[in-house]
Amino acid sequence: MKKFKDIVIVGFALFSLLFGAGNLIFPPYIGVTSGSQWIISFLGFLFADVGIIVLSIISVARAGSYQTVVQKAGEKFGFSLEVIMMLCLGPILVVPRTAATTFEMSVQPLFSSVNPIIFSVLFFTLTLMLTIRPTKVMDIIGKFLTPILLITLAILIIKGILSPIGDLNVNIDTDNLFSHGINQGYQTMGALGVGGVVALVMSSFLSKGYNDATSINLTIKAALLAAVGLVLVYTGLAYLGATASNIYNSNIPQTTLLVNISNILLGNTGSLILAVVVAFACLTTSIGLTSVTSKYFEDVTNKKLKYEYIVVFICVFSTIVSNFGVDKIISISVPILTVIYPVSLILVIMSFFRKLLNKDAIYKGAAYATLLTSLLTVVDNLNLGINLNFIQKLPFSSLGLNWVVPAVVGGFLGFILSTQVELNKAKI
Fold first, then answer.
1. How far is CA 208 from CA 9, 10, 60, 224, 288, in A?
2. For domain 2-337, which architecture applies?
3. Strands (E), 352-397
4. Closest to 307 (Cα-Cα) out of 316, 298, 315, 299
5. What is the Cβ-side half-sphere exposure of residue 257, based on CA atoms within 13 angstroms?
6. Count of CB atoms within 10 A of residue 47's CB?
7. How far apart are CA 362 and CA 73, in angstroms?
8. How many angstroms separate the CA atoms of 140 and 44, rounded?
9. pTM of this prediction?
10. Nearest CA among 133, 148, 139, 147 for reference residue 290
11. How far apart are the first and last CA of the chain?
12. Residue 68: its pLDDT value, please?
């Protein structure tokens, strides 16, 4: 009974860590832009968000750390990738976006006179107060904040299912819907800090008296529970967006869309409910990810940088960045995620077959080929006048997976080269 209770509490906390700003605004946008075909985009979204998260958590838990997974591509390469991901997770992108989203969707619609700078200071002061004791983070979120979040979300979603806003738009361009969903899934940035998240979850179980082996098993079960919660909530939010597809189009700002949907469904009460949902979703994510990032950099520097000092730095830096606004933060994140997400994904997937793929050269070949393809994709998307049309003609480009074939080829070349080197050494 104790194990079940602990799995539920930590699973709820993990759900809240993963369900933040982007998780609220992207699913409805998928529904609006996909109309009657929303399920196709939604499946792409699930693959790029929940799918990657679950695979990553299982892989990292079994390996013992995220570094063990990514260092197969080279120790320096793996370390650099992990540091970049943790910086994005913390002060550069994800944590600042939580405050910006809360302000634009919770505060501004109700209290238009509130100064965004003052709000961001208050938001991260609260984050600081609730994050400064790392061993209590999971319990604070799982026992108190997540239930409030889930109840308020359920009210909004159930109302939207029972009284749909309108009919689903059937006049939708069906090209690249799955790819559209994948790109939106990338934007949630849910899998960026899996290494740190797993470390936090496992330390939470260890603090409850479980041994290492049991903690790994319980971490995976908590992750599956969190994944079920994410899928249920995502489905509801995406469907709400689809029911509004005859009213709005892709030009509507993503934060404005959910505000409008809430107002249509529940009037002024909808604004209040959405304000609570957004505030708790973003606050729990801000608390959890600030703790995760701080713990990571404390560990990686062998405690030369103290956890408490890193928490303070992240909160101060995030206060500044959050005032750029959600749309600006998203625009900055797109090229970064397009580069690092596929590399992380291919290494996680390959780690499941580590007994078969037992040469580091295979991982290096696949990782470098994926990185090169992703970099060329970003350059092409930025329209810098450089003709790289071929990058969009690679297999699976329409699915947003143009890096898959280069990764396979790179891994195969790595295998061939390493085998040849071994043969040459044997001859000598």
1. 12, 11, 21, 20, 18
2. Up-down Bundle (1.20)
3. none
4. 298
5. 28
6. 18
7. 8
8. 32
9. 0.75
10. 133
11. 62
12. 82
Query: Do residues 44 and 180 touch, judged by C-beta distance below 8 A?
Result: yes
Q: Where do the domains of the chain lie? A: 2-337, 355-428
Q: What pLDDT, on a 0 to 100 scale, did the predictor assign at position 140?
A: 62
Splitting the chain (428 residues) into consecutive groups of 10 residues, what average pLDDT does each group show? 82 77 81 89 88 84 80 87 84 87 85 90 90 64 69 86 87 76 75 71 80 84 90 91 87 83 85 80 82 86 90 94 85 82 85 82 93 89 77 81 91 89 73
| DSSP label of 167 | P
Closest CA to 56 of 355, 346, 361, 281: 346
The reported pLDDT for the residue numbered 134 is: 58
Q: Annotate 240-305 with DSSP letters as a single string.
A: HHHHTTTT--TTS-HHHHHHHHHHHHHHHHHHHHHHHHHHHHHHHHHHHHHHHHHHHHHHHTTTSS
DSSP of 287-354, one letter per residue? HHHHHHHHHHHHHHTTTSS-HHHHHHHHHHHHHHHHTT-HHHHHHHHHHHHHHHHHHHHHHHHHHTTT
